Protein: Fatty acid desaturase
Organism: Sphingomonas gei
Amino acid sequence: MNHSVALDLRETAAPAARAAAGRIADDKAMLRAAAEIARDLHKARPAIFWGDMLASAALGYGALAATILAPSTGWALLAGTVAVLALYRALLFIHEISHLKHSDLPGFRLGWNVVVGVPLMVPSFMYEGVHNLHHARTRYGTVEDPEYLPLALMKPWSLPLFVLISALAPMGLLLRYAVLSPLSLVVPPLRRIVRERYSGLVINPSFRRRPAEGAERTRWLMQEIATSLWAIALLALTAANVIPLRAFLIFLGVIGAVTVINQIRTLVAHLWENEGEAMTVTAQYLDSVNVPPPGLLPALWAPVGLRYHALHHLLPSVPYHNLAEAHRRLTALVDRDSPYHKASYAGLPGLVHQLARSTMGTRR
């Protein structure tokens, strides 16, 4: 779903300083080194993908059941925390699916949708065909990038709003699949709105999704129908008291917590300092964030390789389980003054503080 608010939140100061970020020249030594060290790192390993995804989902659903059945508030909070973190990790495989060479992992997309995507009402079509635009050389950071907003140029109160609005995602997903999807089948103008505005995990409110074609369109429709049937059944069974209201609300609460954590991760995935100008690959890298070891917490809030988000923008086809090795090799290979080192940060608090200061700094 589009979790952003279509408001003009930008400040008017310092456009020249921000525009200069897009004119950073490419560091050819870094780009050559990245390509060199990754030659043997592009192949996904099925055992890791399937094992990690299924184990995360099993732990998440088990903890969700424990949360619903917990004998006390304390146990419910503990189990709920485990459910949120495990399902969050399972859900983030949607990012890997958008980059996969599917012949390397036959059936994984279908398996993930059955186990995670449809039950959590975030089928993979909502990211496939959208996320790749964020990696397009001429789109990143521009108004045509579905996953970019110049948050560093926005008003300070836009940051908490950006996070808090994501808590409404469970209700938005139910509305999208239980109500809008069926209605759009008989109301063509509504179908266009649903397809353009409510069929992608984006943060840019001006983004409009184009219609899918061929096999992609078939997959989209199958996933959408399955998710719609699931959402309708969920509401119907709750209304009939087959599913207790408390269990239903806990389920929505867990999904809401997952989307809030993901929105916080998104908040610090980039520096968000570009104001629409096309950027070089090096500029895109420096506008992105790595949070490498020794920190441990990023493994929880930026799992499935997303702690190496800047590196991912250099090597988008390297699967998540090889990014740590790619980082180790590249760190050892490039010079001390290489731009590669400038995208690594210590952790979440410092990144949030830096972004908040940026919003303050753009004010006159």
Q: What stands out?
A: Residues 1-19 have pLDDT under 50 and may be disordered.
